[in-house]
């Protein structure tokens, strides 16, 4: 049942209310908000630059290298186990 009055879910009403509240703020606070946003952005950019980040492509290349290395390691471990088994069986005295 509609009463014909705007509700808070009405985007036009919310936009108008937000605009009036923003206009009602003292100029110093409005300037402070913009300054705070700029400082946060600069701080985040500086922090991200200090991190040793890699691109997605570099990460995928290194993941592929790691997978190949693991496969080679597993093959070598199996080969060593086979050779150790051969040595043990050939070192046993016959009979």
Please tell me about this protein's structure.
With 95 residues, the chain is an all-alpha fold. The chain folds into 2 domains: 7-53; 54-95. Helices cover 78% and strands 0% of the residues. It has helices at residues 11-24, 27-50, 56-91.
Descriptive labels:
95 residues; mainly alpha; 2 domains; 78% helix
CA-atom Rg in angstroms? 34 Å
Q: Pairing-aware structural class of the strands and helices?
A: mainly alpha
Q: Please indicate the percent range of residues in DSSP E strands (runs of 2 or more).
A: under 5%
Instruction: Tell me the span between the first and last alpha carbons.
Output: 100 Å
How helical, in percent, are the residues? over 70%
Number of strands: 0
Question: The biggest beta sheet, please?
Answer: none
Total number of helices: 3
Instruction: Return the average pLDDT rounded to an integer.
Output: 79
Domain unit count = 2
Outline: rod-shaped
In short:
The chain has 95 residues and is mainly alpha-helical. The protein is built from 3 helices and no strands.
Topology, please?
Blueprint (H helix, E strand, L loop, with lengths): L10 H14 L2 H24 L5 H36 L4
């Amino acid at each position: 049942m509609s009463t014909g009055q705007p509700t808070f879910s009405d985007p036009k009403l919310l936009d108008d209310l937000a605009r009036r509240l923003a206009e009602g703020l003292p100029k110093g606070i409005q300037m402070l908000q913009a300054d705070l946003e700029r400082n946060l952005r600069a701080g985040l950019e500086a922090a991200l630059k200090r991190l040793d980040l890699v691109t997605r492509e570099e990460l995928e290349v290194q993941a592929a290298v790691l997978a190949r290395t693991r496969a080679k390691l597993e093959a070598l471990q199996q080969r060593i186990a086979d050779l150790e088994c051969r040595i043990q069986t050939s070192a046993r005295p016959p009979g």
